[in-house]
Design brief:
This protein has about 325 residues and is an alpha/beta fold. Helix content is about 40%, strand content about 20%. The strands form three sheets. It has a five-stranded mixed beta sheet with strand order 4-3-5-12-6. A five-stranded mixed beta sheet has the order 9-8-10-7-11, with helices on one face. A hairpin with a 2-residue loop joins strand 1 and strand 2. Helix 1 crosses helix 3 and helix 1 crosses helix 4. The protein is elongated, with a radius of gyration of 24 Å.
Length: about 325
């Protein structure tokens, strides 16, 4: 094995190929042509004495040797990147760097405009990108280096993931102003909807996979009720728009609900149970813990997501109302 012929560019190409399993997509991410990626893989095959990738239809399948090398190579590359970044330091005013974040449309609605307001004057050369990544894939994206920070609800974390609390929220019910059933039943905006009324009104549910159940359903079952789901959509924006355009009810986090209510003429209500507190946190790979640029980004995220109020869930054992509705 001729290690003298090995350079970091070959390992970087190998790392991206393990993520993409396509010379075309890998080249796109690296800014290289397909032929350049293929040539680099050819050199690496000669050095290691293994095929590394075998074509299977339209994709390249890694060999057992490639799978065994994946994590050691990725870890080594990230450690080198971290060491070089720390040595170079980070000056926001002159930095020319891309940061990629992961989160839902609910998160991007609040996070990205606020980041733009504070980052642009301080770091005009920094580019911010946000990907819509399902929660169950957030840690794999961090491991692969596809994103720098993920913003999600509290989750159990492996020891290689760093995290910090950002804010607390809870779910409220949204309905269009003048909703006929709520008006007929005398349920005023900001009040708790009785369970029998809540479950009698068809609902729209956020679901990225078509599942028609959510976090509210166990609470309803505990009360001896079940709701009627008549629509599922993959984004909170779509929930709010569907509610504004129909007599459906929707359930969305309170911060987003207040934002949507102003734009779409909605009223907010309490669900027929004590809303569970949702803690939103940011997550990152610990290999970037001491990277100056990454530390700066985490500081800015914490700064802009420090909401003026966390709206602690009301205790429905006493008469409750949302005084800030409408």
């Amino acid at each position: 094995m001729n290690f003298a012929a090995l350079d970091l560019n070959l390992l970087r190409i190998f790392d991206v190929m393990m993520m993409e399993l396509s010379t075309v997509r890998a080249g796109g991410r690296l800014g290289l042509t397909q032929s350049a990626v293929s040539a680099a893989l050819g050199r690496l095959r000669q050095i290691l004495g293994d095929d590394l990738f075998v074509r299977e239809g339209n994709r390249m399948v890694p060999t057992p040797r490639a799978l065994a090398l994946q994590e050691p190579v990725r870890t080594a590359l990230r450690q080198i990147e971290g060491a070089l970044s720390a040595a170079a330091g980070f000056d926001p005013a002159t930095a020319d760097r891309d940061f990629v974040l992961a989160g839902s449309d609910y998160v991007s609605t609040f996070l990205m405009p606020r980041l733009a307001r504070v980052v642009r004057p301080e770091a005009p050369g920094v580019t911010l990108q946000m990907l819509d990544v399902p929660p169950q894939q957030a840690f794999s994206f961090l491991s692969e280096g596809r994103v720098d920070v993920a913003v999600e609800r509290q989750m159990e974390t492996p020891d290689w993931i760093g995290n910090a609390a950002l804010y607390r929220s809870f779910v409220v019910v949204v309905a269009r102003k003048g909703h006929p059933v709520l008006s007929l039943q005398g349920v005023a905006p900001g009040e708790c909807i009785p369970p029998e009324v809540y479950c009698a009104i068809p609902q729209v549910v956020l679901s990225t996979d078509g599942t028609k159940t959510g976090s509210v359903d166990p609470e309803l079952r505990r009360l001896g009720f079940s709701r009627s789901v008549r629509m599922t959509v993959p984004h909170f924006h779509a929930v709010a728009i569907a509610v504004a355009s129909s007599d459906l009810l929707g359930n969305i986090p309170v911060h987003f609900a207040r934002y949507a209510a102003r734009l779409l003429d909605l009223h907010l209500y309490l669900p027929p149970f004590d809303p569970r507190t949702i803690e939103m946190r940011m997550y990152w790979h610990r290999r970037l813990e001491r990277d100056p640029g990454h530390a700066w980004l985490r500081e800015k995220i914490a700064e802009v997501m420090a909401f003026d109020a966390t709206y602690p869930p009301p205790n429905l054992t006493t008469p409750a109302r949302l005084p800030w509705d409408g």
